[in-house]
Specification:
homodimer, about 400 residues, alpha+beta, Creatine Amidinohydrolase, Chain A, domain 1, Creatine Amidinohydrolase, 2 domains, 3-stranded antiparallel beta sheet, 10 helices, 21 strands, elongated, metal ion binding (chains A, B), hydrolase activity (chains A, B), Peptidase M24 (chains A, B)
Chain lengths: ~400, ~400
């Protein structure tokens, strides 16, 4: 198994809580299930972790692939429990409870821990059938996932390589655009819009085997809302935030990077904000090493931004301008996962992959954000991002 | 509000069960929440339906957009409940329970119904705080969603237009490929692979504002596994299944279509299977009208296939060849939603959007599947798909 998952922390927790197993009932959009099962399918399936193995329950359609591709020790198909007959007799809801209760019984499991996101319908159905169901609220699997194996790091690096190609394609469009008298950017005779740059990013990622749900190419006031994807014509003398978070279609691993550009002159305050954000980004990077907390790293970024006179959520929890999000987050099979680089961020461990992405926002000025993806090491970090930091876009 | 949602069936159910509200705790990947709230966000948020309105609870980052874009009657931000302070004091799990309990209290809600997929962690947390939580196991919101409004039909039509363009691009590649002596298809001097056709499909969809997670371009034995996406060189004299299910990036509405092609001669049995599948597809379409059940329509397809001598899951529940899936499924904000066109399929209503997609599978022969997307009407159906059915690929 390439992924080479170590579930011993989960098994220890099960033993400590006197639980026979850990059950996930979700589809492959649940990163924990994908990680634990080594399997992905379009429809829901179930993964049971016991002391002696990992056990999958899948539809007949998925059975062959699950046997070949998953990392599970056993794979059972639903028809073993006459699932279709149960559905016809009892409806889908009760059929599922009955099937799962039988599946657990076959594995000698009477008490289970489940993730917080475990469906209440399934939990209540199993409880009615005498299974003892307790929520594992610590997020142990997400904690295990936070520390990447060597294989996982390779996959994340590969996605970030694709991301760099996409960022370069976007930057080249910005760099080679002409500026009309009204300040709008024009490329190949047509207005250069957020949508056009986004399309170029997406096509570049596709050619590298990656996809994405969203990209941010946000100009001016759009960029001052960190969740605004941006739209319409891009303009000179304005800040343009480009944030790309692609996912490799095959492996499922994400990467993440942000750069902020401006053609022409965005003004003195915008340039100052860029410089201060870059200082905060460097201070946060400097603070990273195994043993410090995500809160420490977030604090390092806040220190720089507050010292320069900008509000942060630390200095003013209700501010809507300044630094209004966390410094970073874990990246892996989820785009946002553990560990957190925020006031709530716990200890960073070697092998944690995190983004470092301070920013400053104000609708009057626009947005600035600079983001790299790094892996924490014993004595610092290794940057997984190989992309120049600079406000002025350049071609190649 | 464009979507124009009618939640009266949900409110009646709440009243009948003596529940004060219906609570969803999920992210925008939950179609029910997107539908009920008219809102989509990258991070989890909560939607509460009461007798007097729809109420959102969102992070500060989403607040402005939620006020502007959502269809909710009220929008509350988490900071109203000092969420960050609660996280710092009690950890994320308990903080969320406390915040939600306070949010419910503010709306005078003491007892809630929740969807089956509601997180057990949240349900148990609220129960510990005295909230009466019961699972709504009927899937009322999914039932409401199954009947499309005029606006929704327009969105699905638009996605299917993009899908037709993508299918045409794929078919053109197959039609204009040359056949090498070893039977492999070649295009522009390079091997025509499943991956290359998939890329062409994806780029075409991107240019139409649509994206997709998966596409199936499966040749020969690959096509005999309905969930295999296909890979490697495409060959003449083999069946090639092309199944495309894109989603409009803006509206979130899916479409779905499958065609099966063959260059050269796939053999007599393959041609017979194509003809029988086309007959089953026509029989299923013919059976559709408001008032019949999804099971009836599925039965019409099974009749044709069984009469022609092929196994179905109806004639042999354990078969791994023949017709090994349902005849169709609802399509909307989810790619698989209500109603079901399967042995479990209930009554079809005017406005239901369903796929009709019988198929025949055998690793020795390959796969055949023909799929259109239709909307059920009072006296039949309207086909939302405008694409020729034919085994031989043609350009334009």
């Amino acid at each position: 198994m390439e992924l080479d998952v170590d579930l011993s922390a989960l098994r220890s927790a099960l033993e400590a809580d006197d639980r026979d197993g850990y059950l996930i009932d979700d589809d492959a959009s649940d990163a924990d299930q994908r990680y634990v099962s080594g399997f992905t399918a379009p429809d829901p399936y179930q993964t049971l972790v016991t002391a002696d193995g990992v056990h999958l329950l899948v539809s007949g359609l998925e059975y062959g692939r699950a046997v070949t591709e998953s990392s599970a020790d056993t794979v059972t198909r639903r028809s073993t429990y006459d699932y279709q007959k149960l559905v016809a007799e009892h409806g889908g809801h009760e059929a599922k409870s009955r099937m799962l209760a039988a599946f657990l019984e076959d594995h000698g499991v009477e008490s289970i821990a489940v993730p917080r996101t475990f469906p209440t319908g399934t939990a209540d159905g199993l409880r009615e059938r005498g299974v003892d169901v307790a929520v594992e609220s610590e997020g142990i699997v997400e904690d295990i996932r936070a520390t990447k194996t060597a294989w996982e790091l390779e996959q994340i690096r590969a996605t970030q390589r694709a991301n760099e190609a996409a960022m370069a394609a976007a930057e080249e469009l910005l760099a080679t655009a002409e500026v009309r008298d009204d300040g709008t950017l024009v490329h190949g005779g047509e207005a250069l819009t957020s949508e056009r740059v986004t399309e170029e990013i997406e096509i570049t990622l596709l050619r590298h085997g990656c996809g994405l749900d969203d990209t941010i190419v946000a100009c001016g006031a759009d960029g001052a809302d960190p969740h605004d994807r941006g739209s319409g014509p891009l303009k000179a003398d304005e800040l343009i935030v480009v944030d790309i978070f692609p996912r490799d279609k095959e492996t499922g691993y994400f990467a993440d990077m942000t750069r902020t550009f401006a053609r022409g002159d965005p003004g003195e305050e915008a340039r100052r904000r860029y410089a201060v954000t870059e200082d905060a980004y460097e201070a946060a990077l400097e603070a990273v090493e195994a043993g410090v907390t995500g809160a420490d790293v977030h604090g390092a970024a806040c220190d720089v931004l507050e010292d320069a006179g900008y509000a942060t959520l630390r200095s003013d929890p209700s501010t809507e301008t300044g630094f209004i999000h966390s410094t970073g987050h874990g990246v892996g099979l989820d785009i946002h996962e553990q560990p957190s680089v925020s006031p709530a961020g716990g200890e960073l461990l070697a092998g944690h992959v995190i983004s470092i992405e301070p920013g400053l926002y104000d609708p009057e000025i626009g947005g600035v954000r600079i983001e790299d993806l790094i892996v924490v090491t014993e004595d610092g970090y290794e940057n997984l991002t190989d992309y120049r930091v600079g406000l002025e876009p350049t071609a190649e």
